[in-house]
Design goal:
- By secondary structure, the protein is of the alpha/beta class.
- Strand 3 (about 70-75), helix 4 (about 80-90) and strand 4 form a beta-alpha-beta unit.
- It has helices spanning about 10-30, 40-45, 55-65, 80-90, 110-120, 130-135, 155-170; strands at about 1-5, 35, 70-75, 95-100, 150.
Length: about 170
């Protein structure tokens, strides 16, 4: 199975998060998967080694994405490149599993928070995520709903869901 690991690779936190997911899947499935992490493609992403144009980056990553069987989308930094990759994957019918770990996503069961938001929407303690992007976790391009959404709040939950999906689809 070919897997594309999409994320903002410009911050240490995102690179570490991506490496955690990558290592977990490669350790579990070994040679049964071919996981592409753009951060590992030094021809286009070693910023200290030289220049890669936008076209170079687009074409290198697009080649790998269009051949993929699965896109993992690490969305914590709301990277525009990742949003583009997600749109391409959706149009091509490539399953997308999303991770968004912001702690402001918790507490939606707290009446005190909900009461205050109703009084003053600017006291909203929850985070808005563009629904076009989160919608990718609920249906495929033909509108078929998934049994459960493919969006997760922790990397551990994402990894477990990916292990299950990959094992079922190898």
């Amino acid at each position: 199975m070919k897997i594309y690991l999409g994320c903002d690779l410009f911050t240490e936190g995102q690179r570490l998060q991506a490496k955690k997911v990558q290592d977990a899947l490669e350790n579990e499935f070994k040679e049964k998967i071919n996981l592409y992490n753009p951060a590992d493609n030094l021809e286009i992403n070693d910023k200290s080694a030289g220049f890669a144009s936008g076209a170079d980056i687009l074409l290198a990553d697009y080649k790998r994405l269009k051949e993929s069987d699965l896109l993992i989308a690490l969305m914590d930094t709301k990277d525009l490149g990742l949003a583009g990759e997600m749109g391409i994957a959706f149009e091509r019918g490539i399953p997308i599993f999303e991770l968004y770990t912001d702690i402001r996503l918790t507490g939606n069961d707290r009446d005190d928070k909900l009461r205050e938001i109703k009084k003053d929407v600017f006291q909203n303690d929850f985070l808005y995520i563009n629904k076009l992007i989160t919608g990718l976790a609920y249906v495929d391009k033909d509108g078929n709903a998934f049994d459960k959404p493919r969006i997760y709040k922790t990397s551990d939950d994402l990894i477990e869901a990916l292990k299950e999906f990959i094992a079922e689809n190898l």
